[in-house]
Structures are given as structure tokens and as C-alpha cells.
Specification:
The complex is a heterotrimer of chains A (about 350), B (about 725) and C (about 325). Helices cover about 35% and strands about 20% of the residues of chain A. Among the domains of chain B are: about 60 residues, no CATH class; about 190 residues, MetI-like (MetI-like fold, Orthogonal Bundle); about 230 residues, MetI-like fold, CATH 1.10.3720. Chain B has a two-stranded antiparallel sheet. Chain B is globular, with a radius of gyration of 28 Å. In chain B, about 50% of the residues are buried. The chains are: A alpha/beta (about 350), B mainly alpha (about 725), C alpha/beta (about 325).
Chain lengths: ~350, ~725, ~325
């Protein structure tokens, strides 16, 4: 496996005058309360993780959990107080201002919750902005912007001003702008939180479609657990600056690491998260099987109806169409309804 | 005991007042102290006591320190002045090449710098002025007088008034449509027909130089303050003082440093107009959401790109409102700048007032006001105008207005040349209507003034006598009767109750400065006039404001009137009151009241209207009467904001009281005016100005602290 | 392409700016133009315009510079002003002498006009206050001059504060029962006077001669103890041994004209004109009158004077 694109080692972000001094010689999670007494606020507390190429890491947490701060440390919009951050092996914190600008111009793109469009520029000019900043000629940057506008479905609105667009459309502009320089790393800071639920769903689909085509390395911040489950390869759940758990959606739902994480997962419909793989049994009885075959990577919800329509267990196959196990309808019923009994 | 615990604040106040009045009555007026007219000021009277500081002798009347503090700061104005003199005349002589006498000359550095600044300013003003009304000095600056003598044709011709009018019309149309276009045209035609073209253009030329410079200066300082907390911290108190210093007091040091003339007027104007620009720039930049800044950074902007491509365009509206403020301040200074030699409408107005030709003054005043309102409306329209996208337009559509203007220039030139054939007697009315050939409303106005005097003389006189005898004199005596200790107790006690030790010390510090200056008595008179003005305009403003806030239409109308009145240069207010009340203290006070009522009314309306609608609904459902609604809901909630309005009222009142010195009041303002004609008046003018500023700042500190506390308590957002 | 144009434009404008500053500095002090000081009273304004017009007739270029009437002398010594033509002894003598002794000023002439400034009352006041114009008599009937805001003391209507009359000091030194009420302008004084005369009310105001008031109303100056130079420099002189200003203003004060030191060298033609000219009491009087009672604008008044006195100025410019 190739080297991680983003790598964090014990990153701390502490706000306050004595922050640096207080952190000297500290290791592990620090006690937020003792910092507070000293007039400091802990934003990110000992974050260590890696994101590999083409992976989407969703950082999930409630407001004030430090998730946006973490994202801004990694994009170096704020400087981390302590710790190491590597982008493709480069020490981010050691970069000089010029190098940092170069890095951002070529490797990074970011989408913001409030869209953060420039009010005096049209859709096209907004999208072309990072390119023009780089010094690319006006004609070239505009033609690239036209292409990007088409990619995010903004044809016909190229010459509108941001104030003339709906929220969803504005965020499309934001997405197009962040992709204009064809970055390798894509940061998204609660991109869909300011949108209406229906639009949000639509934009998530759109986003998945884009990611399917582009395969960027992504850090995505959200406070919406459902969104995280829908999009993530892996999820990091943060609370008070500490990453409580970092794992695949399935593992988080099945085995929450802390009480805090459990509270989120309780409400989650498992069939939406779990793959068939996690409910299958080993192949014991090969005769008494239904003709239906399902992929082991399928999300339960998508195949539940078909499985429940069968009387016999269904065989599970892997990507090579080889049978790796069976799944019983009763188990599916149990997953869909059983896990939430206590909430009824 | 119970009661004290229940209302601790009221008891603090009660205690404070008891101590204050106790001191007032307990301390006798010292023998030999006469009210005001015999002033404890620096003079050669041998009856005075004296002391030495840094070799400067300061004389004063020695009284009990409980009654009046000795003027320990009496040396300060002299010292400031000596330092100024030293910097200008002796410090760091440098050599430079004088092309005239073909020799090296020595001149002190600062003097050389100020000379270059003066010359540059003067050149810019002349340049624009000669574009507008023609002349030869610009040509001379690039050639020489000898060359001009040899080539008499070489003269800038000046733009015919028809073209300027058409230009204003087109600009008005472009910015805000028909209404503004027609108003622009009417303004220009009025100015021309009434023969005020030349002075108006002179005024305009100096605004056109001062405004862009203030704009740039303000923008740069604002950006600097945005980027560095330390700069902001240093700039803030300076801006505070600058914005509360009366206009006059800038004039003296500027006169000392830069001399007298249009350039000095422009420099005074720039100093006066820059602070609001700095503040609005800072405000606008602060308002840019951090996400937009981050978006800019993530797009790979360097600092420069971030500033010019992201921050400034995003803060455009606020910055352009800053431009509007700058222009307004420039016109407000138009009259005052003519005290140190700025030509134009202001100078005409001043001269007319000096000769007490009210009609003439009124005409010039109307012109300044029209120009002010016009520029105000134009710049606001510009600020609120959104950018348009032109990509799909044809060349003609894109440059429509430019083409129209070119057309207007051609037509205007044709008109002007036709005119030169038609009007044979030397005045081409299609080019410029000369000053004395325009229509003059003077006889009309004068007749009006005479009629008012003849008809209402007795009534006004009775009113005047009553006001002076029964209200002003006792009030003034009461203020002067305050022993200095009592004043300190009152001021610092109020500070303590409102904002704790910190406020008490700040306010006490301001007061101490004034008390130690030689002008405590004068400051008391200023304070009494301002207090009278503030009380009267506060009452009027709050009543008018509350009535107007009752429905939407009246709110809009009254706010509109406030807007318009606020664009009037402050000096203009003196003209009508002089018409009605002649040259008396009453005139000044009426002007103060009219002028200071504007912010009181505006803030009252804003405060009342900003009570959340949900609260109104809740109140309606509880079945309140309109009176109850006003008293129990709107007022308590709006009160902090109204107090901020009173704060503005204080500043406005102080300004007007000082300007009123022109009519002849006997307060600090009179001394500032006197310093204007004193070669060594620079230090005096500044320190006097500081005294006035400190009165304003002390009140500002008290009210602001209180209002902020109260707002926090009520959970209101900062407006 | 667009960027290049922008960049070039910026470069050129910066260059031009530097160039203008350079030029301006080089040209600013060129003394091609005669700078005549103008102040805020009518006779002076008209007189300055008259001098200006005459200068034009002898091919000099003229510029009028608005100046404070006290600080103007220092400015003249510094070379910012070329001519000041109405130097009244009483009012400006002190500032003028100070600047003169510092160097840089050449005194050209004393006009024929004789000036007096001081306390003045309309004739009818004598009826109510016998013994006038003696100041002691005035002091005795101070109460008839009292006003609502003067605590029973007599009110003396003074001129603008910047005219630096030492009336407050004089009142104190002579122990008079009066207060000064300083008005902002000459116009305001005349307005007060008009009002009082209309109702025949007692009034004593600041006035000077020559001006048009002498022609309009009959009246007299109040006589204080006779003026002596020592009175304003030596406290022990005069009635009050402890104070200055215990005397009158000079009764036959001068009216002078002075120029900057370099004027002779830079403007020989103008210098010749100045040397020959002279204003009399009636000239000053008329110039003020055109404006203050005739209602003419300053340039018209100057034109009018020039038209009426051709024979007079014709000799000056020869």
C-alpha cells in the first residue's frame, strides 16, 4: 500500500495565550479542564490518523467538537499548536508561506458551509478564481471554468451572480471552484449543512457521483451522522477535541468504542449501514438454498426485500462470484427490526 | 436595610447626589473670584500668582484648590507651540538645490517636507479647478510665466456649465435612474442661474482633491489596522480624539505648519474626513466572513491577492459608504476651511455673514447644501449599486453612458461657441454665468429677514429676554458655582456607579486634564451650553421619535428628513437662526438644539422600531394598550439604543457650541477662534480642542459603558 | 494582454505623479505673481482689488490670498504674502512691529488717512449721560447701558475677538463698571447700532474711522486718558500703577502699507506703483460705503472706485 496522503501525529490545537507553554512535554490526551482553568480552550486534542489515496474520511461530531478546527489545521488555515502533519510525506507545518501557497494552488481544494463565494464575481469568475490567482490566462481559465460548471450541473447559469442563485446552486459553484485546479486532496467543511433536507439528499447523490468519477482523497466534515454513514469509507467521531473512534461505518455501528459513540449508533437503522457480509453465516448446508445470489458487499437495505421474498437461505458471493456464505431471512428480519426493539 | 439591598443602585445615586450638593453648598465662593469674565488665564496682570515649569512662567489667580485647581498644565500650550516652532524652524536642516537662484539652500527637514506637501496639494487643487473653470496656472507650472507672456493663447479654457450639468445628469441616471438625474440637473442649473458657478466649482475642486486623498489614507490605515491588532489599538484612541475635536482647533496648528490657502483648507479637511473612512474600512473588512477569507487562502491567494481580490471587493459596500462619509465631511468642512484661506462658497458665505448680509449667505449656503445632498445621494447610490455583467452586450450598450457624455460635450461646445457669437457684451451665458450677472435672491431674502424682524421683533425679544434671564443665566451661574471638588465627585462617582473603578478613573482623568488647564471656567460654560442643548434636543428628539415610530410611513418620512438634515454642513445651520434671533447666544443655542435633535430622533426611532415583532405579538396577546406598549415594552428595550443616540447628541451639541463661537459665545470656542489669529496660537488651539474632545469622550465613556452593560443584561445584539 | 496594459498604465501614472511633484516643487516658489492679502472687512477687500487692478495695468500678475489680519505680518516676512495695504495702528500695530523687527518686511508708506479706533456712541446718548465724551462720565451712567445678561453692568459692544482690542483689560485697569460683549463681525456691530438708533436706546460700540458709519450717524468717540506708548508696555505708567492699558488708543493712528523684502527686486513695475499710491480717509470711507450701504459686490465696488477716481490713480501708474 502506498504512503498515506494525509498523516497526523498527535495534533493539538489549543487556543489561548499560554497554549504553547502549557503543551510542552505533554503526551496523550490532555485534560481539557485544567487548560480551561488556565484560560485556554482545547480545540483538537491529540489527533492521530492517516488518510490514504482515494479514501474518504468523514469527521463527524457535534458543534464545538473540534472537527472544523481539525480540518483547518490540516489545511493550515490555522497553525496546529503541537504535533506533526504530513501531506504526501511533506511536513506541512515546516512549509514556508510561499511553499504553502504553491501547495494550495496545486494540491488542495476546499468547500465551505457558507459557500464563501465572492459576491462581486459571476459564477464563471468564481470558478475560475483559483486558476486566475495561479496566473493562468483569462481565456484558458474561463474555458476550464465552463467545463467545471458543466460538471456540477450549472449550464446556463454561468453569468449569474451568486446572489441570484439558490443555496444548492451556490454550493455547486463552491464545489466547482474547489475542483477547478484539479486538486488531489479535497476538503469539505459541512458542505451541505446549510441546505434544505431535500436538496441535501440530492447534493449527496451528486457528490457520490462526482467522487465515483474523480477518486479524490477527501476529508469531509459533518455533524450529520446519517450523512457520514452514507458517504464515508471511514468515520472519525470527535467529542471535545478527542477522536473517540475512527473506523468503518459498519464497525462503528456494530461495536461502538465508547458510550458517546453508542448514543449515535442506537438510532441508526442497521440495514442502511451493514453489508450482507456482516450477517452471513458460513456455508454449512449447500443444498437447501434459494436460487438467489447476493453480493457480500451489498448494503442490507438494498437487498432485504429480495431476501425476505425467499423462504430458503440465500447464498452470498464475492466479487469473483464464488459462494462465501449464506444468509437467512430470519437474520435479516432480526437486523432490520430487532436491533431497535428497545426504542419501540 | 431591606430597601437598600433591594435598590442598591438608587442608593448609590442618592448618596452621590447628597455628597455633591453638600460640597457645592459647603464650599464658599472665594473672595475675588468673579464669574467668568475675569478669567484665570495667562496674562500679564501682576495680581496673579505664578509658577515656573521648564523655564516657562505660568500665572494664575490663586484660589483654594477645593474651589479651582491651579492651571498646572498652563505650560503645555506654550511648550507644544515651542516644540512645533522648533521642529519647523530649527530641527535637522538639510541642503537642497534651489533652481531659482542656482544655489544650494538650507532648510529644516520638516519645513521642506511641509512645503512640498503644500505645493503638491496646491497644484492638484489648481489643476482640477482650472479644468472646471479655466485658468493658466497649471500651464505655468509646466512652462513658465515668460512662456505664457509669449504665448497668450495658452490657457486652460474651463468646461462650459452646460457640459458639467449634462455630465451630472448622465451620472445621476447611470447610478440611480431618473429621479437622481433630474435632481442633479436642477442642482447644477440652480447653481449656474444664480451666478454661483465659480465659487461652487472652487469648492468642488477642493473636495475633489481632499476626498480621494482621505479615501486612500483611510483605506490604507483601515487595512493596516485590520491586519495588526497593535495598530488598531494605537489608532483607536487617536481616532476617538480626532472625531470629537472641534473643527476649529485643527485649523490653528495646520496654519502654523502649512500656512494659509486652499491647500491648508484641503489638509484640514483631509484630517477631518479620514477617521470615518478608517472606521468604515475596518468595519467592512471585519464583516467579511472568515469562510470567504479561508476560501481565498485555499484558492492559493498570497497576501496581496487576498487583500485586493477578495477582502476589498467583498467589503465594497461598507468601503463605499466610507466614501460617502468622506465626501460629507469634506463639504461640512467647506465653510470652516475658509477660515484658513480655502476659496469658494464657504469663503463667500463667511464674508456675507461678516457683513451680516443674510440673503447672500443663504444663497451660498443653499448651494453648499445642494451640492452636499447631491454628492451624498450619488455616492450612496454608487455604494448600493450592484455590479452588472456586460459579457453579452454590444459595444454601444456597454459604453452607452460614455457615448452620451461625449455627445453632451460636443453639443455643449457647439452651444458655447454659438453663444460667443450671440452674446456680444462680453458674457457668454452658455459658457459661464458670471457671479454678478446671475439671478440673485438676496433682495427677496433680505426683505424676508426685515419682515420677520419687524413683525416678530417684540415677541422674539420677549422670548429672548425670558430665556436669557430666567433660564440661561441661572443655569450658567449654577455651573460656574460648582467647586472643582464637587465636579470631580459627581463625574467620578457617576463613572464608578456605571462602570466601576475603571470608568471612574478614565472619566476622572479626562476631567483632570481640563481642570488643570487654564480654561476650566470656559469649559464649564461650554459644558453648560452643551448640557442645555442636549436636554432640549433630547426631549424633542425622544418625543418626535416616539411619535414617528408609531407607524411605517411616518418613520420613513422622519428618517428621510433626518438623513437630509444631516447632510447639511453644520455651519449652514447658523444662517437661519441668525435671521431669526440675530447675533445672540439664543441663536447659537437654537442652532445647537436643531442640529443635535437629529441623532436623538434617529436613534429613538431606530431603537423603538428594532423591538422584535414577536414581542409585539406577545404584548398584543396580553392585551396591552398602545400607551402601555410604548412605556412597558418598547421604551425599556429601546432605551440603551436611545442613550447611544444621546451620546451622539452630546457630540453634535459640542460641535455646534464651538462653531457657535463664530456668532460670539463666550466659551472655549471663542478662545479657539482667538488662537486662529495668534501667530503662536498653535499649541493653544490644540489644547483647547483637546479640552472639548475630552468633555465629549468622558460623556461617551459613561454612556457607552452603561448602554453596553444594559444591552448585555437585556440580551440585545450590539447594533 | 490586459494585464500588460494595466501594468503599463499604473507605471505611467506613478511616473507622472512623481514628475508633477517634482515640477510643482520646482515651480511653486517662482515669484511671478504678486500675492495681495485680503481680510474680512469691506474697505480692505475693495482696496486690495483696486491695487490688484492697478497692478494688472502695469503688467503685473496678481493673486489674492485670504489671510488672518493678525498673522498676516509673519506670513509677509516669510514671503508667503507680498502686499498688506491696510495696517491700522491701533489694531495691528503690535503684530506689525513684532514682524517688522524680525526682518523681511519693507515699510513703503503711511497713507494720508488718519485712523482712530475706540468706544463710540451715537449723539443722542449725550442727553442721557451728561459729561460725555469723558470716560468718567460714561462710567457714572453705566447702568443705562446695562442688559439682561450683564448683572447690572454697562455693556460695551466690542468687535470680533481676533481683532485684539484690549477692552477687557482697559475696563479692569480703569476700574470701570462695564463688560465687553464681543460680536463676531463688523456687520453684527452695525446691526446692533441700527437697532439702538432706531429706538433711540443708549449704546456704546466699537467703531473706527474712517468708515461709512461717520456719514450715516452722528456720534463721538469716548475719550480715555491720552495714549502713550509706555501705557501698553509699562504697568506703572498712568492712573492705575499696577496695570497696563489704562489709556486710550492712539487718536491720530497711522494707516500703513508694507511689502515683502524681495518685492522691489521681483516686481520693479509694481514697486514703482506702490511707491506712488496713497489712500485718504475719504477713499477708505467710500470703498466701504460701496459695499456696506450700496450693496455692491467687491469687484464691482473696486470698478466703481476706479471709475470715479481716474485722475488720482492715473498719476500712480505713470
Amino acid at each position: 500500500m502506498s504512503a498515506p496522503v494525509i498523516k497526523c501525529e498527535s495534533v493539538y490545537k489549543v487556543f489561548g495565550i499560554n497554549a504553547k507553554k502549557m503543551l510542552q512535554g505533554v503526551s496523550g490526551n490532555v485534560d481539557a479542564k485544567s487548560f480551561q482553568d488556565a484560560g485556554c480552550i482545547v480545540g483538537v486534542n491529540n489527533a492521530s490518523f492517516e488518510v490514504s489515496k482515494g479514501e474518504m474520511l468523514v469527521v463527524m461530531g457535534l458543534s464545538g467538537s473540534g472537527k472544523s478546527t481539525l480540518l483547518r489545521c490540516i489545511s493550515r488555515l490555522t497553525d496546529a499548536t503541537a504535533g506533526k502533519i504530513y501531506i504526501e510525506g511533506q511536513d506541512l507545518l515546516a512549509l514556508k508561506n510561499k511553499e504553502l501557497i504553491e501547495l494550495r494552488r496545486n494540491k488542495m481544494g476546499m468547500v465551505f458551509q457558507s459557500f464563501a463565494l465572492l459576491p462581486h464575481k459571476t459564477v464563471l469568475e468564481n470558478i475560475a478564481f483559483p486558476l486566475q490567482i495561479k496566473g493562468i490566462k483569462t481565456e484558458d481559465s474561463i474555458s476550464k471554468a465552463v467545463e467545471m460548471a458543466k460538471l456540477v450541473g450549472l449550464e446556463g447559469r454561468e453569468n449569474y451572480f451568486p446572489r441570484e442563485l439558490s443555496g444548492g446552486q451556490q454550493q455547486r459553484v463552491g464545489i466547482a471552484r474547489s475542483l477547478a485546479v484539479e486538486p488531489d486532496i479535497w476538503f469539505l467543511d459541512e458542505p451541505f449543512s446549510a441546505l434544505d433536507p431535500l436538496i441535501r439528499k440530492e447534493m449527496q447523490d451528486e457528490f457520490l457521483r462526482l467522487q465515483g468519477a474523480l477518486k479524490k482523497t477527501i476529508m469531509f466534515v459533518t455533524h450529520d451522522f446519517d450523512e457520514a454513514l452514507r458517504l464515508a469509507d471511514r468515520i472519525a467521531i470527535m467529542k471535545d477535541g478527542i477522536i473517540e473512534q475512527l473506523d468503518t461505518p459498519a464497525n462503528i455501528v456494530l461495536s461502538p468504542a465508547t458510550e458517546y459513540v453508542r448514543k449515535f449508533t442506537q438510532e441508526v437503522p442497521r440495514e442502511k449501514v451493514l453489508k450482507i457480509e456482516s450477517v452471513m453465516d458460513p456455508t454449512s448446508d449447500t443444498k437447501n438454498l434459494s436460487d438467489l445470489k447476493v453480493s457480500k458487499d451489498a448494503i442490507i437495505e438494498t437487498v432485504a426485500e429480495k431476501i425476505l421474498g425467499q423462504e430458503k437461505p440465500v447464498s452470498v458471493v464475492d466479487s469473483n462470484n464464488k459462494v462465501v456464505g449464506i444468509v437467512k431471512p430470519s437474520k435479516v428480519i432480526h437486523t432490520v427490526f430487532g436491533g431497535r426493539k428497545e426504542n419501540l | 436595610m431591606e430597601i437598600i439591598k433591594k435598590y442598591p443602585n438608587s442608593f448609590q445615586w442618592l448618596f452621590l447626589l447628597i455628597v455633591f450638593f453638600g460640597l457645592c453648598f459647603g464650599i464658599d465662593v472665594p473672595e475675588g473670584y468673579k464669574y467668568i469674565r475675569s478669567i484665570a488665564e495667562y496674562s500679564k496682570d501682576p495680581n496673579l500668582s505664578s509658577y515656573n515649569l521648564f523655564g516657562i512662567e505660568v500665572r494664575y489667580y490663586a484660589y483654594d484648590t477645593l474651589w479651582r485647581l491651579p492651571p498646572l498644565l498652563g505650560w503645555l500650550p506654550i511648550w507644544v507651540n515651542d516644540s512645533l516652532f522648533f521642529l519647523l524652524n530649527d530641527w535637522m536642516p538639510i541642503e537642497f538645490w534651489n533652481a531659482d537662484i542656482k544655489e544650494f539652500q538650507t532648510r529644516p527637514l520638516i519645513l521642506q517636507i511641509t512645503r512640498v506637501i503644500s505645493a503638491t496639494m496646491l497644484f492638484l487643487i489648481e489643476f482640477i479647478r482650472e479644468i472646471l473653470i479655466g485658468g493658466i496656472k497649471t500651464v505655468v507650472a509646466f512652462t513658465s510665466w515668460d512662456w505664457i507672456d509669449a504665448n497668450p493663447w495658452a490657457e486652460l479654457p474651463g468646461i462650459p456649465w452646460t457640459i458639467v450639468t449634462a455630465g451630472a445628469f448622465i451620472l445621476g441616471y447611470k447610478l440611480n435612474g431618473k429621479g437622481l438625474a433630474i435632481f442633479s440637473a436642477i442642482t447644477m442649473i440652480y447653481i449656474s442661474v444664480f451666478g454661483q458657478w465659480k465659487p461652487s466649482m472652487e469648492t468642488l475642486s477642493f473636495v475633489l482633491v481632499a476626498a480621494p486623498i482621505s479615501f486612500l489614507l483611510g483605506l490604507v490605515l483601515g487595512i493596516w489596522a485590520y491586519r495588526s491588532k497593535r495598530v488598531e489599538g494605537a489608532l483607536n484612541p487617536i481616532l476617538n480624539v480626532m472625531q470629537t475635536m472641534p473643527h476649529y482647533s485643527y485649523l490653528v496648528p495646520i496654519m502654523v505648519i502649512f500656512g494659509v490657502g486652499d491647500h491648508a483648507g484641503a489638509i484640514a479637511t483631509i484630517i477631518f474626513a479620514t477617521p470615518p473612512m478608517v472606521r468604515l474600512t475596518l468595519l467592512g473588512l471585519r464583516k467579511v466572513s472568515p469562510d470567504v477569507v479561508h476560501a481565498g487562502k485555499m484558492s492559493g491567494c498570497n497576501d496581496f491577492q487576498l487583500l485586493f481580490k477578495v477582502l476589498i471587493p467583498t467589503a465594497r459596500t461598507d468601503i463605499l459608504i466610507g466614501v460617502n462619509q468622506v465626501i460629507m465631511q469634506c463639504l461640512a468642512m467647506a465653510v470652516i476651511a475658509s477660515f484658513i484661506g480655502a476659496k469658494g462658497l464657504g469663503w463667500n458665505l463667511l464674508l456675507a455673514l461678516n457683513q451680516l448680509r443674510i440673503g447672500l449667505a443663504l444663497e451660498a449656503g443653499i448651494c453648499i447644501t445642494l451640492i452636499a445632498v447631491l454628492l451624498d445621494k450619488m455616492s450612496l447610490a454608487w455604494a448600493h449599486k450592484q455590479t452588472d455583467y456586460f459579457a453579452n452586450l454590444s459595444f454601444f450598450e456597454r459604453h452607452r453612458y460614455g457615448i452620451f457624455f461625449v455627445g453632451a460635450v460636443v453639443v455643449g461646445l457647439i452651444f458655447a461657441s454659438v453663444g460667443s457669437f450671440y452674446f456680444k457684451e462680453g458674457f457668454n451665458y452658455l459658457y459661464e454665468v458670471p457671479h454678478n450677472k446671475g439671478i440673485s435672491g438676496e433682495p427677496f431674502w433680505n426683505a424676508g429677514v426685515d419682515w420677520i424682524w419687524d413683525t416678530f421683533f417684540q415677541t422674539l425679544k420677549i422670548f429672548n429676554t425670558w430665556l436669557i434671564q430666567d433660564v440661561l443665566q441661572p443655569m450658567r451661574a449654577a455651573f460656574l458655582r460648582m467647586p472643582v471638588v464637587a465636579t470631580f465627585v459627581l463625574v467620578m462617582g457617576t463613572g464608578y456607579i456605571v462602570g466601576g473603578i475603571r470608568s471612574a478613573l478614565v472619566v476622572g482623568g479626562f476631567t483632570l486634564f481640563i481642570a488643570l488647564s487654564p480654561w476650566w471656567d470656559r469649559a464649564l460654560v461650554t459644558a453648560y451650553m452643551a448640557t442645555f442643548g442636549v436636554i432640549a434636543s433630547g426631549i424633542i428628539g425622544i418625543i418626535v421619535g416616539s411619535l414617528a415610530a408609531q407607524n411605517k410611513t411616518s418613520t420613513k418620512i422622519v428618517l428621510g428628513i433626518c438623513d437630509t438634515l444631516q447632510t447639511f454642513p453644520s455651519f449652514v445651520y447658523l444662517i437661519p437662526v441668525m435671521m431669526l434671533f440675530g447675533v445672540t447666544d439664543t441663536s447659537v443655542l437654537i442652532a445647537v438644539i436643531v442640529y443635535a435633535t437629529i441623532p436623538a430622533t434617529r436613534y429613538t426611532i431606530e431603537g423603538l422600531r428594532s423591538v422584535p415583532p414577536a414581542l409585539h405579538d406577545a404584548a398584543s396577546m396580553s392585551g396591552v394598550t398602545p400607551m402601555q406598549r410604548l412605556l412597558k415594552i418598547q421604551f425599556p428595550l429601546a432605551f440603551p439604543h436611545i442613550m447611544l443616540g444621546i451620546n451622539q447628541t452630546v457630540v453634535f451639541a459640542l460641535f455646534m457650541v464651538i462653531i457657535g463661537a463664530f456668532i460670539g459665545t463666550e466659551d472655549l470656542g471663542q478662545y479657539i477662534l482667538k488662537a486662529l489669529s495668534d501667530v503662536k496660537g498653535g499649541g493653544k488651539g490644540l489644547i483647547l480642542g483637546l479640552c472639548v474632545a475630552f468633555i465629549g469622550l468622558a460623556v461617551d465613556n459613561l454612556i457607552r459603558t452603561w448602554a453596553n452593560k444594559r444591552k448585555k443584561l437585556l440580551g440585545l445584539e450590539d447594533y | 494582454m490586459k494585464n500588460t496594459i494595466n501594468y503599463t498604465a499604473k507605471l505611467i501614472s506613478v511616473f507622472l505623479l512623481i514628475l508633477t511633484i517634482f515640477f510643482v516643487e520646482a515651480k511653486a516658489d517662482k515669484s511671478g505673481v504678486i500675492k495681495i492679502a485680503i481680510h474680512n472687512w469691506s474697505s480692505q477687500l475693495v482696496g486690495a482689488t483696486v491695487i490688484g487692478e492697478l497692478m494688472k495695468k502695469v503688467d503685473e500678475k496678481v493673486e489674492y490670498v485670504l489671510m488672518d489680519s493678525q498673522t498676516v505680518y509673519q506670513s509677509m516676512a516669510d514671503g508667503d504674502i507680498d502686499i498688506v495695504h491696510e495696517i491700522w495702528e491701533t489694531q495691528f500695530g503690535e503684530s506689525y512691529n513684532k514682524a517688522l523687527s524680525g526682518g523681511g518686511i519693507e515699510e513703503i508708506l503711511t497713507h494720508d488717512a488718519v485712523t482712530r479706533m475706540g468706544w463710540w456712541y451715537p449723539e443722542y446718548v449725550e442727553k442721557e449721560c451728561p459729561g460725555l465724551p469723558e470716560w468718567k462720565a460714561l462710567n457714572k451712567c453705566s447702568s443705562i447701558f446695562a442688559r439682561t445678561d450683564s448683572n447690572g453692568k454697562g455693556v460695551y459692544i466690542g468687535g470680533p475677538v481676533e481683532w485684539s482690542q484690549h477692552d477687557a483689560e482697559r475696563i479692569k485697569a480703569l476700574g470701570m463698571n462695564f463688560v465687553v460683549k464681543s460680536l463676531s463681525s463688523a456687520g453684527s456691530i452695525w446691526k446692533e447700532l441700527d437697532q439702538a438708533v432706531k429706538n433711540e436706546k443708549p449704546i456704546v460700540v466699537f467703531n473706527w474711522s474712517p468708515n461709512f458709519i461717520g456719514a450715516k450717524y452722528k456720534g463721538k468717540f469716548v475719550d480715555f486718558p491720552k495714549h502713550d506708548p509706555k501705557c501698553i508696555s509699562d504697568a506703572s505708567w498712568g492712573i492705575n500703577p499696577k496695570k497696563l492699558y489704562d489709556c486710550d488708543n492712539p487718536i491720530n493712528g497711522y494707516l500703513k502699507l508694507a511689502v515683502n523684502d524681495d518685492f522691489k527686486k521681483n516686481h520693479p513695475k509694481g514697486y514703482k506703483l506702490i511707491k506712488h499710491m496713497n489712500f485718504s480717509n475719504s477713499d477708505i470711507d467710500k470703498m466701504a460705503n460701496y459695499v456696506d450701504t450700496g450693496g455692491l459686490a467687491i469687484p464691482e465696488a473696486a470698478e466703481e472706485w476706479l471709475k470715479d477716481h481716474k485722475d488720482k490713480w492715473f498719476i500712480w501708474i505713470k
